[in-house]
Design a protein that fits this description.
3% helix; four-stranded antiparallel β-sheet; seven-stranded antiparallel β-sheet; Jelly Rolls; mainly beta
Length: 155
């Protein structure tokens, strides 16, 4: 590759990160790819990842003690819960184009209520909360370019 073409780096940080160049984290509820993380871009850049939740699936109530989260619904429909200051669950229906702000340390959850996969762009600020996902018991990591496959369960 000639100088000045394609991916450029500065002090180890990629200037043009690409979805096809990052691993895929696969869970029972769906999968995600992190485009920027604390490890790849430092704490000054928010962690940015694409989350895909399968129909009827989602992630359970959790929080990020050291990061706020911003969610942008790229496609699909779902149910978003963000707890209020007094701990009361505030549940809203969300769909394409909606934005959800989850303040630092606030408990929240997301459920795909549609028939198609729900895609959400997730951003953590400061970066670092994405590392907690690596400890989940249902995690399977696929190398960059490897595609996740899912089969419906038969009863």
């Amino acid at each position: 590759m000639a100088e000045g073409e394609g991916l450029m780096t500065m002090a180890g940080q990629e200037r043009y990160p690409d979805w096809s160049d990052v691993e895929t984290l696969v869970f029972d509820w769906g999968y995600m790819k992190w485009l920027t993380t604390r490890k790849t871009h430092g704490i000054a850049i928010p962690a940015i990842g694409m989350v895909t939740m399968l129909p009827g699936q989602g992630h359970a109530r959790h929080n990020h003690p050291a990061s706020a989260e911003l969610l942008y619904v790229v496609s699909g429909t779902g149910e978003q819960m963000v707890e209020l200051d007094d701990g009361t669950p505030d549940v809203r229906q969300v769909s394409t184009g909606d934005v959800i702000h989850v303040p630092q340390a606030v408990f929240h959850s997301t459920l795909n209520t549609g028939w198609a996969p729900m895609q959400v762009l997730a951003m953590y600020s400061p970066a670092g909360a994405e590392e907690d996902l690596l400890t989940q018991p249902d995690l399977m990591t696929l190398t960059a370019g490897e595609l996740p496959t899912f089969r419906p369960e038969r009863s």
